[in-house]
Amino acid sequence: xxxxxxxxxxxxxxxxxxxxxxxxxxxxxxxxxxxxxxxxxxxxxxxxxxxxxxxxxxxxxxxxxxxxxxxxxxxxxxxxxxxxxxxxxxxxxxxxxxxxxxxxxxxxxxxxxxxxxxxxxxxxxxxxxxxxxxxxxxxxxxxxxxxxxxxxxxxxxxxxxxxxxxxxxxxxxxxxxxxxxxxxxxxxxxxxxxxxxxxxxxxxxxxxxxxxxxxxxxxxxxxxxxxxxxxxxxxxxxxxxxxxxxxxxxxxxxxxxxxxxxxxxxxxxxxxxxxxxxxxxxxxxxxxxxxxxxxxxxxxxxxxxxxxxxxxxxxxxxxxxxxxxxxxxxxxxxxxxxxxxxxxxxxxxxxxxxxxxxxxxxxxxxxxxxxxxxxxxxxxxxxxxxxxxxxxxxxxxxxxxxxxxxxxxxxxxxxxxxxxxxxxxxxxxxxxxxxxxxxxxxxxxxxxxxxxxxxxxxxxxxxxxxxxxxxxxxxxx
Length: 477
Prior knowledge:
- This protein is an alpha/beta fold.
- The protein has helices at residues 18-29, 44-49, 51-67, 83-93, 100-108, 160-163, 168-173, 188-199, 219-231, 320-338, 356-359, 378-383, 399-404, 437-445, 450-453, 466-476, and strands spanning 6-14, 34-38, 112-115, 117-120, 125-129, 135-146, 150-152, 180-184, 203-208, 235-238, 242-248, 251-256, 261-264, 266-269, 273-275, 307-309, 362-365, 370-375, 388-394, 411-417, 422-430.
- The mean pLDDT is 96.
- Residues 9-321 form the FAD/NAD(P)-binding domain.
């Protein structure tokens, strides 16, 4: 292969994270030749700096917390976590930041991997520049799929670069627990990393600009998580922003808008994400670099008949599972169009439309307690113009809750659309609720009427009996 040789494929995928991998898997399964371009590690952000390492850090934290709530077991787990063992286990799950296995999987499905920086250099054309300077020009007969993900955003504070702050990547890959950690932000990354590092030995201070944590969920979710963080020893300060950050003799010094001075060993900014589209050649096809890419429900970029944007880059739902869902939709749509099959995006239940992105996006926050939600919050449903009613119950009313944890604390809400009596959203907060959310996702995505949900009988004695309590509360009030 020479530097100037042009190679044609049916599909070229930019980005080999879980989203790009799934696009490649679906197009290869349809018999299309597929090239995948990756500038970092095959497996992407999720595998090495996000979902996988963060959950590896959090699993022992949650398991210990659950064990401490069980009579006869709590005395056996009163000591500190073995931080070195937790970090070693995390390293194992990230394959020590080596991607040999992921690359081999791509090869096993018949996709061709190109390592290097890929840029669009015109319609249906991607030029890949390897670390050794070698260039390969790839053309796509049917589609180019942009699956490059997103990056952490740092605020515009003078001198921040000199402080060398943590982003989510540092927080999930650190090889030792800092003695003192300031976390700026109140979303998923902030709350999960505050939970993890507080349990692993750090003294954590959380600075939240707004009124509370997890502001995209029902208010009670953030309230319960904040209470638990405080009980665990973290200092959670709401209505507080970092005005300046410096590093003095190795110590991070944070000045807040409340006039406080906080000293720490590290500071994590978990204050948002930006699309990783700044240097992928969007300008060569008439698009603005560094922007989110709007798409239709088949994930095709608005105004294009060949360019797809899948996962974080389209800004629909910055979640790995939603990106993989979109990838399956995009792969099916690309394959259908390649074979001349009409793609009917209006088919809400079809294989070619990512309609769940609009009304049934599930998410779990792996804090203690866990917070899980799908669909719309009460405020979002009202803002959307639905005639809704919120139904709240304490999860402790479910017979299995007390068996799961002594003194179980948690809350559940379902948002009922009174026109048709279907669910627009469901939220659970409490120990173990991550395993409840898929039942809620089925109910919301499938638009299951409440009259039918009465016949979905929860097993006794499990926490899922909370569904019966919710239905009874709706009926009786």
